[in-house]
Amino acid sequence: MIGKIFVNLPVRDLDKSMTFFKAIGFSFNPQFTDKTAACMVMSDDIYAMLLTHPKIKQFTKKQVADAHETTEVLTALSVESKAKVHEMADAATRAGGKEAREPQDYGFMFGRSFEDPDGHIWEVFWMDPAHVQKG
């Protein structure tokens, strides 16, 4: 069983990215944060390491993708209510992000997507627990 997940994301301006993600409700672990990387805490078991381009190049020989031009990953975050979906997505746009697509409403599931300042797409969604239990 996997214990925790650390998603590593390249960012051009670490301070700008940290300011953006603080504005939508995330915190940072100072123990794993410096001028080249920041450990963003999304939950007790989910983290994103925001890495400057020179820092991420220490871990890969591949070219760093420009998320404004290509999509390598869509990060989906489950929240407890439709209201929380709106709260997070609205905070993201106020903080400088932009809507990635129109809201998706399937009745039992609702979601919105936004791009962060580096173009990474984040999908925030709520799913009706009663629907999940039905199978």
From TrEMBL:
It comes from the Bacteria. Residues 3-127 form the VOC domain. InterPro entries: Glyas_Bleomycin-R_OHBP_Dase (IPR029068), Glyas_Fos-R_dOase_dom (IPR004360), VOC_core (IPR037523). SUPFAM superfamilies: Glyoxalase/Bleomycin resistance protein/Dihydroxybiphenyl dioxygenase. This is Glyoxalase. It comes from Nitrospira tepida.
